[in-house]
Amino acid sequence: MFQEGHKHSPKWYGRMVGNKINLGKKHTSETIRKRVNSRKGYRHSEETLRKIGLGNKGKRVSKESRQKMSKAKKGKPSPNKGKKASLETRKKQSKAKKGKIPWNIGLTKKTDERVRKYGEKGSITNKGRIPWNYQGGISFEPYGIEFNEDLKEVIRNRDRRKCQLCEKTELENEEKLSVHHIDYDKKNNDPDNLISLCRSCHSKTQINRENWKQYFKSL
């Protein structure tokens, strides 16, 4: 029985319970668009989010369901492909993550089973593939004998112990800065060809090399 003041009438409820008339039917793109727009800006309360989290805790998607989801997405480009998040969106994402500690920080394959499993999965998936940014093995070429720790310290001090791309200091990065060869020639250790970069920015310079050459030469 319905409680007094219930928003759904018994007549409406009777039509809905056990009604399979819409089973298998798909909404039109126009209907989906209207439903999406009607929910725009809506946020669940903290209490609702907590309940949803508790309800999903420990649940695992079955292998069959994962295969169906994979099949449904196969061949379809990502809806976000080629899209760049606005500055406002990036600020919101940054604010949401601030103060949150990554679950895997400080964990290794030896100390945590999950990290080991993720590593093994990635290894199997990428086995036999040539990385898209592979440069033919030039990263293994030897550096010139003068490219030692003394020279690196000279460059770091010259650059005020600050990454010349993102401007974060060694103190903020909690490690020494890398010293990058602007022209990618490991034997050209002229101080004008060397620049201090943090680990993250240094990794970015491994692609679009010509662009980075021009950029650093213009500084």
Automatic annotation (TrEMBL):
Q: Which InterPro entries does the entry link to?
A: HNH, HNH_nuc, NUMOD3
Domain spans labelled Nuclease associated modular: 23-39, 40-56, 57-73, 81-97
Start-end of Basic residues biased regions: 68-84
Q: Where is this region: Disordered?
A: 1-101
- Which terms in the Gene Ontology molecular function aspect does this entry carry? DNA binding; endonuclease activity; zinc ion binding
All copies of domain HNH nuclease, residue ranges = 150-203
One family name in Pfam for this protein: HNH
What is the recorded name of this protein? Answer: HNH nuclease domain-containing protein
User: Which classification does the entry list for the species?
Assistant: Bacteria, Bacteria division CPR3
